Structure formats: C-alpha cells, structure tokens
Amino acid sequence: MGLQQTLKALADPIRREILNLLKKGRLSAGEICDQFPVTGASVSRHLSVLKDADLIRDSREGKFIYYELNTSVLEETMLWLADLKGVSDHDSEA
Description:
Number of helices: 6
Strand content: 5-15%
Distance between the termini: 34 Å
Helix content: 55-70%
Strand order of the largest sheet: 1-3-2
Structural class: alpha+beta
CATH architecture: Orthogonal Bundle
Number of domains: 1
Shape: elongated
CATH class: Mainly Alpha
CATH superfamily: Winged helix-like DNA-binding domain superfamily/Winged helix DNA-binding domain
Radius of gyration: 15 Å
Oligomer: single chain
C-alpha cells in the first residue's frame, strides 16, 4: 500500500487508538467496539480503513473476526519519517 493511504489512516484519533489497543495483542471486533463511544458501524469503518492501508490484518475464527497489527507497514512508515527528518544510522551511533 502507499504511504499516502497509510498517513490518511493514521490521521484519525480513533484509528490511532485502535492501533494502540492492538499493541497488546489481537482483539475481536466486538472487543474493539467496546472501547469506543461510537456505533459498531463506525468502528467497522475505521477497521476497514486500517485494513485497506495494510496497518492491520484480520482472521476469522468461527463467527468472530480478530484483528492484529501489521508491524511491517508501521516500520516502513517510521523509516520514511526518520529519513525525512534526516536521521541516519550514523546519528544513532554517535
């Protein structure tokens, strides 16, 4: 996925909070919904945006869908931001 789509997904505070929740491990859609004062449809849309940006993965187990972080896209974004800032490996070793 493209960086523009990733940054757009990260722009929303609810989506960033969903990512924070998933840092601790995978969660079902219902467990994620329970954490927000918005409708289930709204959380579902946020999950869809995060999934389209490849920031999260989902897997179905029976009637439940579980979500987890896709850290490779987050790492690519952090590397791009560090490069933009001008941070290199040499700076961290000094």
